[in-house]
Every structure is written in C-alpha cells, then in structure tokens.
Amino acid sequence: MNQTSQDKLSGTGCTVLLVDDDEDFLFQASTRLRHDGYTVLEAQGQAAAEELLPTAQFDVAVLDLMMEHMDSGFVLCHRIKRKHPKVPVLLVTGVVGETGLEFDASTAEERRWIRADVLLAKPVRYEQLKGEIERLRALS
Amino acid sequence: MDTLRILIVDDEPGIRTAIARALRHYRVTLPEFHADFAVTLDQAATGEEALEKIAADPPDLMLLDHKLPGMSGVDVLERLAEQKAQVLTLMITAYASLETAVNATRRGAYNFLAKPFTPDELKAAIFEAVKHLAVQRQARRLADERRRVRFEFLSVVAHELKAPTSAIEGYLQMLQDRTLGNDLSAYGMVLDRALFRLDSMRKLLADLLDLTRIESGQKRRELQEVDVQDVARGAVELAAEQGAPRGITVTLTDGEPVSMQADRGEIELILANLLSNALKYNRDGGRIDVTIRRLVDKVELRVADTGIGLSDEDKARLFGEFVRVKNEQTRHIEGSGLGLSIVRKLANLYGGETGVQSELGVGSCFWVRV
Predict the structure, then answer these.
(1) What residues of chain B lie within 8 A of the CB of A28, using their CB?
(2) Is the CB of B167 less than 8 angstroms away from the CB of A24?
(3) pLDDT tens digits for A80-97?
C-alpha cells in the first residue's frame, strides 16, 4: 500500500452500519467508507436493517429517515439506542428541505426524543459524512 | 349554510322596514353551487353612514337608494370605487331613467330595482345577485385550487429530479477523487449507475414534455383517418425488439384494419406508454398481447402482460401523476410515474376511457377506449 492511501485509512477498526433505501447512496457511501478503511454493514431499508440488528456489532450507525415508512429512521434509532446506548447514531434526512418539517438534534431536549446524535440534511457530501462519523467516534 | 350580509341604504324608514320585513326569513338556495345562504340585515339612512358601515365591516350585497339626502347613491359608488372597496350593489331608484341606469352601472352597480317593487321582485333581484356572487366565489376557489395543484406538481418534479442529480453527482465525485484508484476499469459499476440514473432523468423530462404539450393544447392535432391496427403493428415491432433480450414475446392479435379519426402521434404515444409498462413489469420469458378491436362507437386498445400484477389499492390510484407501485419486486424498475397519466390525458382528448384488469402475480391487462 502506498503512502497516500495509508494516510486516508482513518477508518481502520471501525464498523459502520449504513441503512438507506437509496441504492446509489448506499453504494457510494459504502464504497468510499471501505476505501477509507472502515468495515461497512449495509442494509437497504428498515426491514433489512432489523434483520441485521440482533447479531450485528458496529461502532457507528448511519440511518436514512424515510424508507419503507415515514419514520423508519426514528424507529431504528430507538432500537439501536436501547440495545447499544453508547453507539452514536447519525440520522440522514431530506425531510427538512422537502416538507418544511423542521427538527434538529442540537439540544439535549431534542436529542431526548429524536435519540439521534446528529441529523444530516440530504444530499450529504461524503467528506461531511466522514467528518461527522469521526467526530462522534472521538466523543464516544 | 353560509350567511349573506345585506346592507339596506335608504333615507325613508318605511322602505327600510318594508325591505327588512320582506327579507327577514328569506333564504337563497343554489343547488348547482351547493350553496345555501341565510340573510342577515343591516341598515343605513344616509350615504355617509353606509360608507362608515362598509369600511368597518363590508357586506356581501348592498341595496342602495339612488336619491339620498347629502351624498347620492352614485356618489357612494364613486367613493367606494376610489377606495377600491367593491360591494355588489343593487341600485334602488324611483325614476329608472336610462341615464341613471348607465351612470350607476358605469360606477359599479350590478343591477336595478325600480320603485315601487313587490317583495317578490325584491327577492328575484337578490336571487340573481347572489347567483352572481356564487359564480365569483366559485371562480376564485377554482383558481386557488389550480394554483395549489400546479405548485404541488412543481415540487414533486423538483423532488424527482433532485434524487438522480445527487446520485450522479456522487458518482462523478468518486471519479474525481479517484476513490477506486487510477485504473478506469475499476469504475464500471460507477459509470453504469450514473448513466442509468441519467437515462431515467432523460425519460422523466421527455414525459414531462409530452404531458405539458397535451395539457397546454399547444401541439397541433392532426386528425385524419388512421388505421389503429397499422399503428399497433409498428409499436409492437419496436416493443418486440426491446423485449427480445429478456425473452419477452410481443404479439399483435390478427385482425381487420380498424380505422378512426385520430392523430396518429397520439395513438402511437398511448401504445408506446402501455407497452413500455408491459415490458418493464413483465417477467423474463413473459408475453405481451396487443389487441385492437372495434366496439360500437369506439376503438379499444388492449395490452395484456404476464407481469407482476397489481393490488386493488394500486389499481385505484395508478392513473395519477407520479404514482409508482412500490414493493420488493419493483425496487429496481425505474420510471417517471407519468406514463399512465399521459395515457389517460390522451384518452380524454377523445372523450375516451382507460382501465385495468389485473391479478397479483399473474399479469395485468390495460385497456383504452377512444
């Protein structure tokens, strides 16, 4: 392995659970995360993620909000936090921009009901996604 | 029930009382507008008082005496016009000369009531005025509704374009960052997916153009004798080529020429959309049967497939805009969700009908009668 790719392997030793019903986002994000050294568990949708949850071990979860249901991301979020309270969860959503439904996870009060540690608005740039994953790993 | 607020403006207390008595229990019912109005009354003795009351709380209708002490009825109308405060007005006048009539209507009066009038004449005049109001209100409601529908349509279009745009952007970024290394051959999947999303965007744009052309009526229709059987032959040939790689056979049931007055391009578009769906939602090795036949006063086009079929719930909403059936089997099938909406709009141009028979897992048969 050459020096440049060595520098990028910041994700070594970290497993990311990536859940999104958008095939393209799933492919792009998982390819890039793996390229940066992360181990990635992929699930295309809430149902697929629920199958993985009982056995999966991961360090960070990245969840789309609207999948099979309007609140798929919220539901998964609660499940994950109940089983793995220490695992940080990123919730990715297009909701704020598209429906004008506004919520945030910046205060403790909001995080209490949303349960996610960070909300990211779609479209998410990969650098931003990776930055947030790294920030949460450093905190936990 | 709505209320209809009427302001009576007359300097003679006797007239005001007589009008009030005649209208006290009057109700205006307009079945064609689903409207039912109960009348509530207010009175003013002078033009000045009327203007004050209108400024404070504008009525729906004003019965305005022409001849008042102080400012006249026409003066009141003039003042209201200056203030851009429109109130539907019935002018009451003892001497209905042509001059007064012209003068008052020019200033915005809706109609006249010549003194002396009977309670029935009064009610008839009010009935006409209320009908006018109801038409105005309905026109306003329709305009609002149209604006809302257009806005909704635009936001769905924006959303439908946004998803592939960010997907393609993501793939291009992978190339730009050389995420998979410097060897281009590693990017096969990246390029395939990007081109696939671009292709579906292109199809969405083409469908949008078809739809707006039909809706705006901008496209010149060329109605002439068209043999629908012949149009179907061409469409089936094209579909057969597209279906061949997946082993789907497309056949046209033999039949006599079926000619009708139609725009050839429109018939082609109907068949192309139906066939495109029949291919997309078919199983590999499946069949598509196209049948054209003459009914009593219409021509029927049927496209039957051996695809995944439809649930009753999906059948009901299928012809709407941007409706796509979403389930495990359709996840990898791309489409704008506009095809059947285009088919229905085209059929409407012929006063036609559209419909579908379908069984889950067996297949669907779409028909259009034009």
Answers:
(1) 167, 170-171, 174
(2) yes
(3) 999 998 899 999 887 555
**Which of B162, B168, B179 to mutate to probe the A interface, most A CBs <10 Å?**
B179
The pLDDT assigned to A3 comes to 42
CATH 3.10.50.40, domain B223-369, yes or no: no
- Taking domain A14-139, whether its CATH number is 3.40.50.2300 is answered by yes
CATH of domain B2-143: 3.40.50.2300
Q: For chain B, give the mean pLDDT.
A: 87
> How many whole angstroms separate alpha carbon B16 and alpha carbon B45?
9
Spatial separation of the C-alpha atoms in residues B342 and B319, rounded to whole Å: 8
Helix, coil or strand: residue B213: helix
Determine the Cα–Cα distance for residues B204 and B339; give it in Å rounded to an integer: 9
> Tokens 């940080």, residue?
A88
- When mean pLDDT is compared over A122-126, B14-18, B34-38, the highest value belongs to B14-18
Q: Report ipTM (2 d.p.).
A: 0.75
Determine, for residues A32 and B174 on separate chains, whether the beta-carbon distance falls below 8 Å: yes
Of B159, B166, B189, the CB nearest to A123: B166
User: Taking a contact as any Cβ pair under 8 Å apart, which residues of chain A between 5 and 34 contact chain B?
Assistant: 22-25, 27-28, 31-32
Closest-CA residue of chain B to A67 = B326
- For residue A41, the surrounding DSSP H or E stretch is strand A39-43
